[in-house]
Amino acid sequence: MNLITCNAFLGGTKQLARDRLQFRPAVYGLIIDQDRIMLVNTIVSNRYSLPGGGVEIGELVEDALKREVREETGLEIEVGRFAGFKEDFFYYDPADLAFHSFLFYYYCRPLTFQFAVKEEIDDYSVDQPQWVEMKSLKLEDFHDHGELTLQLLKAWNQS
């Protein structure tokens, strides 16, 4: 049996049989307004994540990102240029599901600025969308993929 090491949502890693994995493309937005980035709070760790999530079958990546951002923050966005890519093996502990994910990242611009109230957020794993000063962010502030997020922000600041 081939085992794959997956990053677990609740922390750490988990070894799982390869045949447990489902393919899941996902998309995330680096929503930037001047020197701030919009982040959501991951409830289980109380750390930041980028808004985004799974692309549904038949859904365009750009449409998926707009939908996910709307569900998690209430914001409408303009999807800009491609920022980066990451391959990930991910175990979602709450549902006992494992994924082989292709993660696509895009720089985005907010079109609206009114956040959804907690009851309107359509994702039970995140809350508290907020603007955060980019220069204040450190690796330990992120629930996952913090290293890549910081690299992409550095690239944005240099462009």
Instruction: Return the average pLDDT rounded to an integer.
Output: 92
Shape by Cα distribution: globular
Please give the domain count. 1
Number of helices: 2
Q: What is the distance, rounded to the nearest whole angstrom, between the alpha carbons of the first and last residues?
A: 46 Å
What is the structural class?
Answer: alpha+beta
CATH architectural arrangement: Alpha-Beta Complex
CATH topology: Nucleoside Triphosphate Pyrophosphohydrolase
| Number of β-strand runs | 9
N to C succession of SSEs: EEEEEEHEEEH
Strand content: over 45%
CATH superfamily: Nucleoside Triphosphate Pyrophosphohydrolase
What is the CATH class name?
Answer: Alpha Beta
Rg over CA atoms: 15 Å
Quick one: biggest sheet? 9 strands, mixed
Quickly describe the structure.
By secondary structure, the protein is an alpha+beta fold. Helices cover 16% and strands 47% of the residues.
Explain the overall architecture.
- With 159 residues, the protein is of the alpha+beta class.
- The protein has one domain (3-158): Nucleoside Triphosphate Pyrophosphohydrolase (Alpha-Beta Complex), CATH 3.90.79.
- It has 2 helices and 9 strands; from the N terminus they run E-E-E-E-E-E-H-E-E-E-H.
- It has helices spanning 61-73, 146-158; strands at 3-8, 13-17, 21-33, 36-42, 47-49, 52-54, 77-92, 97-110, 126-133.
- Strands 1, 2, 3, 4, 5, 6, 7, 8 and 9 form a 9-stranded mixed beta sheet that branches.
- It is globular, with a radius of gyration of 15 Å.
